[in-house]
Design brief:
The protein is an alpha+beta fold and about 350 residues long. It is built from 8 helices and 7 strands, in the order H-H-H-H-H-E-H-E-E-H-E-E-H-E-E. The chain folds into 2 domains: about 150 residues, no CATH class; about 170 residues, Histidine kinase-like ATPase, C-terminal domain (Heat Shock Protein 90, 2-Layer Sandwich), CATH 3.30.565. A hairpin with a 2-residue loop joins strand 4 and strand 5. Helix 4 runs antiparallel to helix 8 and helix 5 runs antiparallel to helix 6. The model has no long low-confidence stretch (mean pLDDT about 85).
């Protein structure tokens, strides 16, 4: 990483110019009061010092970066050598520029004797050096904290993606095994029907495998998976036992949601409720957009009262998976409600609508 990144070079140069102008304006006033006749001289004095200091500050910052993590005694020893070098370099560069400009203008320049200059400038340089070291240490600490924060955020994103992938992987086997169990129940009763169901299942699995390659897709694409699954279940139980209702607002169909989010809840509605009711059961899936929110509702209602021993109020593995996926993706911005609703159960999911 460069000592002074490209994006900071112009601001740093502008800062040096502003500081030089402020110091020059102050020196100019004193210069006139003392009878000076060449107004450019205070500007030369101050900018020659600021220019050299500006370069030395970069060296101090590089030195502070190199000393990070070193023992404090070693750092003190290095600073004990660097401070006089800083001052000597400042004095040599500053007066070298002044002598060069005065020589070009043909003006005689007689500074104080070397001893006085070193004592006067050395005191100021010591204060400047310590100040620059403290500022540089703060900058390095801030950069390290920012780098740690970025690394932590990257690790969190990677962990969330891994967790989402793990949760998504749970959907496919869970859905597959339960569907195969349903098909096996008719295999020896009606072979052509079982064969037809297996073909439908194969088509559906191809679609779900393709969807599982993506972390998210639209509500329209999710319903395109739910609908054939419910058609498969309707063929299994018969239209007299299972009625399917799927509705989606036009505005809601373009909202994004985690892929295969609704398959497990819809499967649970069929598996746990259609099989438990003696009469007809209506499984409904609805998607609607409410402002910047997406609401998904999966419900099942039977013509007969719900039998005793209701299903797991938490919704089983499928709903736990759904909650975890939404929490990993949206945090507290997603809400899941599940509970009895008349003669059935209703699952309501709300999450941000991102198109």
């Amino acid at each position: 990483m460069p000592i002074l990144p490209r994006r900071w070079r112009l601001p740093y140069l502008a800062l040096l110019i502003v500081v030089g102008l402020l110091l020059s304006a102050s020196a100019l006033q004193a210069y006139r009061l003392s009878g000076g006749t060449r107004p450019w001289e205070p500007f030369l004095w101050e900018f020659s010092s600021i220019g050299v200091i500006g370069l030395l500050v970069l060296g101090v910052h590089a030195l502070m970066g190199a000393l990070r993590g070193r023992p404090w005694r070693q750092q003190l020893a290095v600073h004990a050598l660097a401070l006089p070098l800083f001052s000597l370099t400042h004095v040599a560069g500053m007066f070298g520029l002044r002598f060069a400009v005065y020589a070009l203008t043909g003006v005689d320049y007689r500074p104080d004797d070397l001893h006085s200059v070193l004592v006067f400038e050395g005191g100021k340089d010591a204060v400047s050096y310590i100040s620059f070291c403290l500022i540089s240490r703060g900058v390095w600490m801030a950069q390290a904290a920012s780098a740690r924060a970025q690394e932590l955020e990257r690790a969190r994103r990677e962990l969330a993606e891994v967790r989402l992938a793990r949760l998504a992987d749970q959907v496919q086997p869970h859905f597959l095994f339960n569907t195969l169990n349903l098909i096996s129940s008719v295999m020896y009763e009606d072979v052509p029907r079982a064969d037809r169901l297996l073909c439908q299942l194969a088509d559906l699995l191809r679609q779900t495998l393709a969807a599982q390659q993506r972390a998210e897709h639209t509500v329209r694409e999710e319903l395109a998976l739910v609908q054939p699954f419910l058609a498969l279940m309707q063929a299994r139980f018969g239209p007299e036992r299972l009625v399917v209702q799927i509705t989606a607002d036009a505005d809601a169909q373009d909202c994004q949601l985690p892929a295969l989010l609704l398959l497990a809840p819809v499967e649970n509605a069929v598996k746990h409720d259609v099989a438990r009711h003696r009469g007809r059961v209506t499984v409904s899936v609805r998607a609607e957009r409410l402002g910047d929110r997406l609401r998904l509702t999966v419900g099942n209602h039977g013509d007969t009262p719900v039998p005793e021993s209701p299903p797991d109020p938490e919704g089983g593995l499928g709903l736990r998976n759904l909650r975890e996926r939404l929490t990993a993706r949206h945090g507290e911005a997603a809400r899941v409600d599940f509970g009895p609703d008349g003669s059935g159960m209703t699952l309501s999911v709300e999450l941000p609508c991102v198109c």
